[in-house]
Design a protein that fits this description.
- The chain has helices at about 5-70, 80-105, 105-125, 135-160.
- The chain has about 190 residues and is mainly alpha-helical.
- It has a single domain (about 20-160), classed as Up-down Bundle (Four Helix Bundle (Hemerythrin (Met), subunit A)).
- α1 (about 5-70) runs antiparallel to α2 and α1 (about 5-70) runs parallel beside α3 (about 105-125).
């Protein structure tokens, strides 16, 4: 075997090693980026859920306080003295959850969250006695809250790439369960 053949063989081995190293490095880099994206997506989802739960809790307390004020006929009343401290705690949790969303969310999601915050603050102000709406205005405030929540859901789904169609929620008053009409006077449950 001549020196030229040996150099060509050595060159082919070196080129093969470099290509193998480059391919392995590229695959490892892509795997790392996929794992990072998955990890961040999970963190975002957790932050978004925490935020949405905190808004729902805060709105529920505000609605019950409004019922005690005679504004909301659809919820059971919650006496203001105890409820205002609950509302304050709920606002604190919502504010903390908002910080996570602001840190992790994209621009469209953060803007939608800011709109939802304004709507839940309006319910809080009504609960605190800063506003006294009539029933029609109260329902409009709740409609605005539901619309803002729908927008947040849509933005989160778009940002996280959640497949499927989004079914927006509607303003529905709490369900009032009733016992079914009896099938007959002598029917009993066993």
């Amino acid at each position: 075997m001549s020196v030229t053949d040996q150099l060509l063989t050595l060159g082919a081995v070196i080129v093969g090693a470099i290509m193998s190293f480059a391919a392995t490095s590229l695959n490892e880099r892509q795997r790392f980026h996929r794992e990072e994206a998955t990890r961040w997506t999970g963190q975002k989802l957790d932050a978004y859920l925490e935020y949405l739960y905190s808004v729902k809790h805060m709105a529920r307390i505000a609605r019950c306080i409004a019922a005690a004020r005679g504004i909301n006929p659809y919820q059971p009343p919650l006496e203001r003295e105890d409820a205002l401290s609950l509302l304050s705690e709920a606002e604190e949790k919502r504010a903390q959850a908002t910080e996570k969303v602001t840190l992790l969310g994209n621009e469209a999601t953060v803007n939608a969250v800011r709109d939802l915050n304004r709507e839940v603050w309006r319910l809080e102000k009504i609960a605190n006695g800063g506003l006294t709406p009539d029933l029609e205005t109260w329902l409009a405030c709740n409609r605005s809250l539901v619309d803002a929540k729908n927008k947040v859901h849509q933005q989160i789904r778009a940002e996280l790439g959640i497949p499927g169609n989004y079914l927006p929620r509607d303003l529905v008053q709490p369900y009032d369960p009733k016992l079914p009409e009896s099938a007959g006077a002598d029917s009993t449950v066993t």
